[in-house]
Each structure stands twice: as structure tokens, then as C-alpha cells.
Design goal:
By secondary structure, the protein is of the alpha+beta class. It has five helices and six strands, in the order H-H-E-H-E-E-H-E-E-E-H. The longest helix has 17 residues.
């Protein structure tokens, strides 16, 4: 038939790298361990009538696993190896009762807070990763709403089970943020002091996958795409 021998075009390396990062969290790529959803993160798929219907994507995993140990939080946070050797600026993990923004575990309903920061270029361009653990998925859903707030939204893919992308100004710096829920965890990635992309999208995809791996009882191995 005409056209059957037409050579196939191969996507460029850069496009494949970005697509690989997004596949870590989007349902269309079929990666349940990444915990992503392309329809707002609900993870609920509608059925199709008839035997010839297209194959439905698998439901997105939404684990009830609680990250209750300090080592689990440290493992989920990216390390320099996961960040392609970028220089770490700061890192910390604290229990809820020792966190400045949380006077008591009862008030914030979280057990652990973690944060790390990496320099992208110069002395003002950074990417930050933050994680808050909760004891139930509903508490995490509420935590996502509080953290994202009413800030101006951005058009970004959905990461984890649900996410919100937005701009926020604080401390004299304006940055772009992605806050997401992965099971019982709320995580935020934000870039300050310079261009947000592609680090914001790639970082959020990688962070969601690392958290999902830890919730599944595995060691976090997800990294940024390799150039």
C-alpha cells in the first residue's frame, strides 16, 4: 500500500529527555508508581461501553502509606546525585513539633517537614524542594489547599495525585511554584531568582516519583533527566 515504507522520524534527544520526565508523572504514560494524572489528579477513570473501546489507562495509585520516619523523608528529598551533581545549599528535616510554622502536631496534622535547596547558577538562582508528611490522604488534601493558597495560577502538567502551579512573591523574590499531593504527602518545588523552566517541571516530575517510590517501600532512585 502507498506510504507503508515511509521512514519514521526519530524525536530529538532534548524532546525525549523532557518527555521522559513528564512520563514519570502523567497517567497517559502508564507509570502508576509516579502517581501522576492528566485530568486534574483525581485518578478516577470513566469506563467505555462496547468491546471495541480504546484501552483505558490504569488508575493512578493513591497510597495511604504514612511516611512516619525521618530516614524516609530524607530519602524522598533529592540528593546531589539525583540533581546531576548540582551544589547543595541547605537541607533539613524536622519533626512537626520542632517546626517554626507548626506550634504543635495537632495543629498541622503532619509528622515531618523536609527541605533542601540547590544552586542553579550564580548566587541568586536556586531550586527548592519541600515536603510535609500527613497521617491521612484527606489531611494531605487540606494541606495542599493551604500551601497553594490563592496565588496566581500557572498552566503546568499535573504532578502526583493532584497539584497546583502558581507564582508567589516572598522575601523580595518572586518565584514559580508547583505544590502537589502524592498519597499522604504534600510536596512543593519552586525556583527563585531566575528562569523556572525546565527545572520546575523536571524537578516536580522527579520529586513526585521519588516520594511514590518511598511510599511503596522502595529506595528513591528517580533523578533528573540525563542530557
Amino acid at each position: 500500500m502507498p506510504g507503508t515504507n515511509r521512514p519514521k522520524r526519530r524525536p530529538g534527544l532534548a524532546a525525549g529527555v523532557v518527555a521522559g520526565a513528564l512520563c514519570a508523572t502523567l497517567t497517559a504514560c502508564g507509570g502508576a508508581d509516579a502517581g501522576g494524572s492528566g485530568d486534574g489528579g483525581s485518578g478516577d477513570g470513566g469506563g467505555h461501553a462496547g468491546g471495541a473501546s480504546p484501552k483505558q489507562s490504569p488508575a493512578v495509585a493513591d497510597p495511604a502509606t504514612v511516611l512516619s520516619r525521618e530516614d524516609q523523608v530524607k530519602n524522598a528529598l533529592p540528593d546531589p546525585g539525583a540533581m546531576g551533581g548540582l551544589q547543595g545549599v541547605s537541607a533539613s528535616v524536622n519533626s512537626a513539633d520542632g517546626h517554626l510554622d507548626c506550634p504543635s502536631p495537632q495543629e498541622c496534622k503532619g509528622k515531618w517537614f523536609g527541605h533542601d535547596k540547590f544552586a542553579l547558577s550564580g548566587g541568586t538562582h536556586y531550586v527548592n524542594f519541600q515536603i510535609t508528611t500527613y497521617t491521612t490522604r484527606q489531611d494531605a488534601k487540606d494541606g495542599l489547599k493551604r500551601e497553594a493558597g490563592e496565588n496566581s495560577t500557572l498552566a503546568k502538567p499535573t504532578f502526583g495525585n493532584e497539584s497546583r502551579a502558581y507564582t508567589k512573591e516572598g522575601g523580595g523574590l518572586q518565584g514559580q511554584y508547583v505544590t502537589m499531593r502524592v498519597g499522604t504527602v504534600v510536596a512543593t518545588v519552586f525556583v527563585e531568582g531566575g528562569a523556572a523552566e525546565p527545572m520546575l517541571t523536571q524537578g516536580a516530575a522527579m520529586f513526585a516519583r521519588r516520594i511514590a517510590q518511598v511510599e511503596a517501600g522502595q529506595r528513591a532512585t528517580a533523578t533528573l533527566p540525563q542530557a
